[in-house]
From TrEMBL, chain A:
The keyword Thylakoid does not apply. This is Succinate dehydrogenase hydrophobic membrane anchor subunit. Keywords: Electron transport, Heme, Iron, Membrane, Metal-binding, Transmembrane, Transmembrane helix, Transport, Tricarboxylic acid cycle. It comes from Magnetovibrio blakemorei. Membrane-anchoring subunit of succinate dehydrogenase (SDH). One of its GO terms (molecular function) is heme binding. It is found in: Membrane.
TrEMBL record, chain B:
It is found in: Membrane. Its cofactor is heme. The keyword Heme applies. It comes from Magnetovibrio blakemorei. Keywords: Heme, Iron, Membrane, Metal-binding, Transmembrane, Transmembrane helix. The heme is bound between the two transmembrane subunits. One of its GO terms (molecular function) is electron transfer activity. Heme binds at residue 81. The lineage of its organism: Bacteria, Pseudomonadati, Pseudomonadota, Alphaproteobacteria, Rhodospirillales. Membrane-anchoring subunit of succinate dehydrogenase (SDH). The chain crosses the membrane at residues 21-45, 65-83, 104-124. This is Succinate dehydrogenase cytochrome b556 subunit. Part of an enzyme complex containing four subunits: a flavoprotein, an iron-sulfur protein, plus two membrane-anchoring proteins, SdhC and SdhD. The complex can form homotrimers.
């Protein structure tokens, strides 16, 4: 059995063993992006909760007027982009921690990554439609 | 990669639950909960883009007792995750990773997030004059 881990350890160079496992820079980039998005989410979330409080019980007209104000539209788009970016990075770590079957892991990562883009695009388009198309 | 026998973290089952580990797993649980909240936010925004009827249906759903229960859970999740997230950022800058500080900041996170949750809901009810 040439392919047992023990054999590999003898026959493969250190470089050969880590190839394909992802570069270290990738990990640092992921970590950094998670922190940067977290920092941005702090003020955005506080603004959002405060807005929701003042929007409690709104009818369509009130909400529409609020969401189409320039500043609110911009912050909503920023919130959605940052939130889904942060979520996608976070869920990736959760999946990598708990899902050990390669095929399931790949499938779930695909679902989370593509799903985040799909939902972020929908939410952004919704905000633009409210604020531009009326 | 293909060696499935290597040990994999996290080994949750070998540790006795402690306050630090409970707060830690709660960060993860609230993170996943907030991912669901993000889906709800998208639905809400989309309903408003769709028109008055769709938005009205969304509001009825969100204002029902079940909707409010879910939103209350989301509110706490956000505040907990946010406060504990700040704690995380402190650790990243090498602050607060000793046992006494872990305990104190952990307690502050729990108390602050509970207070902010209740305060927000009081303000929301106050806003519609139902307080
Ligand atoms: C409000 C400010 C927020 C801060 C300061 C923050 C901070 C953080 C930090 C530091 C982490 C990494 C934890 C780790 O390394 O184990 C994290 C993970 C995560 N966050 Fe956030 N976050 C915030 C908001 C959000 C929001 C709004 C969502 C979802 C809509 C979210 C979803 C997640 C998820 C799914 C994870 C992964 C959980 C894990 O790995 O255990 N976060 N957050």
């Amino acid at each position: 059995m040439i392919n047992t881990p023990q054999q590999k350890r003898v026959l493969q160079s250190k470089l050969g063993r880590v190839r394909g496992l992802g570069s270290t820079r990738e990990g640092v980039h992921h970590w950094w992006a998670q922190r940067m998005s977290a920092v941005a989410l702090l003020p955005l979330s506080l603004w959002f909760v405060y807005s929701l409080i003042t929007l409690t019980g709104s009818d369509y007209g009130t909400f529409h007027a609020w969401a189409s104000e320039f500043g609110n539209s911009v912050f909503l788009v920023l919130l959605v982009v940052t939130m889904f970016h942060h979520t996608q990075l976070g869920l990736q770590v959760v999946i990598e921690d708990y899902v050990h079957s390669e095929i399931w892991k790949m499938g779930m990562l695909l679902l989370v990554k593509y799903g985040s883009v799909l939902f972020a695009a929908s939410a952004i388009f919704a905000v633009l439609k409210i604020s531009i198309a009326g | 990669m293909r060696d499935n026998t290597r040990p994999l973290s996290p080994h949750l089952q070998v540790y006795r639950p402690q306050i630090t580990s409970i707060l830690s797993i709660l960060h993860r649980m609230t993170g996943v909960t907030l991912a669901l909240a993000a889906l709800l936010l998208t639905y809400w925004l989309a309903s408003a883009a769709y028109g008055p009827e769709a938005f009205g249906r969304a509001q009825v759903l969100l204002e029902s007792w079940f909707g409010r229960l879910v939103l209350f859970g989301f509110t706490f999740s956000l505040f907990y995750h946010m406060c504990n997230g700040i704690r995380h950022l402190g650790w990243d800058m090498l602050w607060g990773f000793d046992m006494p500080r872990l305990r104190i900041t952990g307690a502050i996170v729990v108390i602050t997030s509970l207070s902010l949750t209740v305060l927000s809901w009081l303000m929301a009810y106050g806003h519609v004059g139902k307080l």
